[in-house]
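Structure ticket #2291
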Amino acid sequence: MLAIQGLKCIYDTGSRGWAVELALAGEGETVTRRFDVDGPDDAEMLIEAFEESTTSSFDPATSEIVFAYEYADLDLDEDEAEDDEVEALEDESEEDEEDEKEKA
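Resolution: structure written out below.
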């Protein structure tokens, strides 16, 4: 697998087609590979996936592009989650009481 250093979107005026070019780093040199895409939306999607990924690589044997992502663990402890639910319910009941007082 070769590390992807960058991507660029290309519109070939001769063939009137869109492509994405990968800059790949491997074995002390940088090489490029070009892949045809259906249009600018597909090229933009690939570039966004590259920009948002933590690591990206290209497998020359299978011609697969792999984008990997790391996400923060946003799970709360059960106690914290229960506390948050209780607070939300209390806030809702206070709002309901205020609405009832205004109507009266």
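Closing remark: Strands lie at 2-12, 17-26, 29-37, 55-59, 64-68.
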